[in-house]
Design brief:
The protein has 222 residues and is mainly α. It has nine helices and no strands. Helix 1 runs antiparallel to helix 2.
């Protein structure tokens, strides 16, 4: 199963758009906070917690508010992200070499605070350590997604090449789940209120403001 960004590139390629269009779609999908943009969110999250002791209350507040704790969980991996163990070792070594052990303790405090949630699929993922490493290296958090995308670009190009070589237009299957068949009603008969409450009535009121002094004179917010 390709990542959302790779899939976006394939969908665009399947329309016979060029490489630039496909990579633009991939970058757009990658920038979302549920994809590559999570690395930026992780860096900002880690910067907002100054002490390891403050991590547990921070996590509890986020979960109580049904807000995400970035750097945990994966759509495919229901256990630890296989890249996690290698990134964790590098993060520890880099933190020790750069004298940023306190920041590393904050990071590990997040891992411990979220450990009870691991059985629910919220295990650490690669974004947690990617965001931390960028922060330790002194890179601005708003560059995190862009730098992460550089490593993804060769894979996107490979997906585009493969799709173009054996192309089939990708059109997702959709199932309509809205209201069932309803009888047709002419516009004047729609709505239960006065003339101005139906779309047709509102349109007529705007076209003939002189007939109704209280009719709206501007475009109503939708």
């Amino acid at each position: 199963m390709p990542a959302a960004s790779a899939f976006a590139a394939r969908v665009v390629t399947s329309t016979r758009a060029d490489l630039h269009a496909a990579l633009t779609a991939a970058v757009a999908a990658f920038g979302g906070t549920l994809h590559g943009g999570a690395a930026e969110s992780v860096a900002e999250m880690l910067d907002s917690v100054s002490e390891p002791e403050l991590v547990v209350p921070f996590v509890q507040r986020r979960l109580a508010a049904h807000e995400p704790v970035y750097g945990f969980g994966h759509r495919v991996y229901r256990t630890d992200d296989p890249r996690f163990r290698y990134m964790r070792r590098v993060a520890r070594e880099l933190a020790e070499a750069s004298g940023q052990t306190k920041a590393h303790r904050v990071l590990e405090a997040f891992v411990e605070a979220m450990r009870p949630r691991a059985r629910h699929g919220l295990a650490p993922n690669v974004d947690l350590y990617t965001g931390f490493l960028y922060s330790v290296l002194g890179l601005p958090s708003d560059l995190a997604a862009a730098l992460f995308a550089l490593g993804r670009a060769p894979g996107w190009v490979a997906h585009v090449s493969e799709q173009a070589h054996s192309n089939v237009l990708i059109r997702p299957d959709l199932e309509y789940v809205g209201p069932s068949l309803r009888p047709y009603q002419p516009p004047p008969d729609r709505g239960d209120g006065p003339e101005g409450s139906s779309p047709a009535g509102r349109l007529a009121s705007r076209r003939e403001p002189a007939l109704s002094p209280e009719a709206p004179t501007g475009i109503e917010p939708v």
